[in-house]
């Protein structure tokens, strides 16, 4: 019974033997359910006895659930008078109306009152063994100094500040300082190019940017300030750039630049927090969609913070005193919700990881787990797959006995990676939680936990909806699929507080992308399978968005850049399965007539173009030059055909009769054979 089948594992706390009788199992569940210990709010929910019942209650009586949780877990300046006012069909999403609060007060001040010397941040710097700890008191002081500095330089409620920084305490203080003074932040991943940064600064209408002189990652120095200099040349609205020093190397400063470290020292350590409405903007975060233009998803104050905090506590079983290690960069939503807002709202200790999984060697994560005594480790499958290749010895070298929960995020985790994570990293002791969510959802929506303590965890499956989440699967006609053992488009039938509210300056696109495909439901863009047991397994994107090393990128975005090359007539970019990255980028390129360049040179040019305009991770692994692309008679590129060719699934090519020129496919098959045998 310990291992009913190879792929079904039970959580670590299960003791074989004792619960082998189903009767006892039921008895134990009822008698040991101490609702107040698990979730204090639950004591008031009559008749709820057990985590599964609590989950049902949170969906069927969602307003009561969220009202109680919001009152219990957030500090309000003024209480809300309405739990929610949402209409998914119209894209109207409002939570905790009438309420006023300050997010930075919820993340800092209230913990400073109770435990000022508790460690809030552990900055795991790129240089191994040089970690720095910041207590809640210190982080509040730093945040107040930045808040005052920004205020003194005219940043006010309603403004948007772009943050282009590596994962470091000052970046966190900058995010919280924005929240303190009522400005929105727009963190741009420091791996993005000058042009991608400029586009996001302009779209967000930021007039203030915060950066560092140089970044350090994996032992390599990156010129972040220079990238900002290049970006702001095409951002006429930027009036000031705050520059902090991550390294000792001076950088050229212009009249627009402000030396942040020096100026901060002149500021007071007390900064009056702004009273923010629940639905005021907390941040924008850009992500890719199926068009070339990234979208600035908007998250607001109360609902986002509450959802990040609740998921952080319950999905990972985070307890006071634990050290939480989310290794995501703050430039992504995972960094926002689980390196910053969730843990800090819970008064937790959170790790900021600046380095890479293999620097200076492939033992980096586990050395860090031992040194920092990490209790929950949250990472991406792509890193796990990479580390598997280096062998178990890099893991076993270090003491991982502090680990209690292992999390996975960003892409599907294959069974091999899951098993390795569970057996080798976690020594078979720690539940592995495969967490499904998106920039749009604000926090984890489907994960194996919370669940009854002895409930099974199936490898590679996100499994169970979180409190307040009601997933449904839809067929292509838009009917809700009610049976089990079925696949469909993954939608959410009910709003939840953590969901994005809109796309910055483009509510119409928000409605069209998420609300219109299945009226009355929120469409995630992913497909999913619901198993016989009712568990969810994500099957992948249904749109032209691909996932490279856990980074999301629209194929159209890459095509737009490739097409800018004067030699290129048109292109089609698709994702293909890659053993480490999850997906790799494969570009089919048609050249203009009379172009006379060596293909190898052109490939290099195109790669440089993509890394220069977007980021390195978006660079094609393969560029195949073709004379024409397979198209329908109406001129639509048939990506399905290209995908099958690249997957070498020629039997799966299916019906080609709608193609304008079926011979194009033969040429593509030949070209692919040549390229893949190189
Ligand atoms: C897309 C969202 C979630 C934060 C990091 C990425 C894919 C995410 C899983 C998972 C299978 C997953 C989905 C989703 N995805 N988590 N556990 N299993 N796929 O956020 O950049 O907004 O990307 O990542 O396709 O839609 P994001």
Number of helices in the DSSP assignment? 21
**Unique ligands:** 5'-O-[(S)-butoxy(hydroxy)phosphoryl]adenosine
How large, in whole angstroms, is the Cα Rg? 25 Å
CATH superfamily of the domain at 545-676: ANL, C-terminal domain
Give the neighbour order of strands across the main sheet: 13-12-9-7-8-15-16-26
Portion in beta strands:
15-25%
**Would you state the CATH class of the domain at 545-676?**
Alpha Beta
CATH topological fold name of the domain at 545-676: GMP Synthetase, Chain A, domain 3
User: What best-fitting shape do the alpha-carbon axes yield?
Assistant: globular
Would you mind describing this structure in some detail?
It is a single chain. This protein has 21 helices and 33 strands. By secondary structure, the chain is an alpha/beta fold. It has a domain of 132 residues: GMP Synthetase, Chain A, domain 3. The protein has an eight-stranded mixed beta sheet with strand order 13-12-9-7-8-15-16-26, with helices on both faces. Helix 3 crosses helix 4, helix 5 packs across helix 7 and helix 20 packs parallel to helix 21. The radius of gyration is 25 Å and the shape is globular. The two termini are 49 Å apart. The N terminus is likely disordered. Bound molecules: 5'-O-[(S)-butoxy(hydroxy)phosphoryl]adenosine (WT7). The site of 5'-O-[(S)-butoxy(hydroxy)phosphoryl]adenosine has 22 residues, from helix 12, strand 21, strand 27 and strand 28.
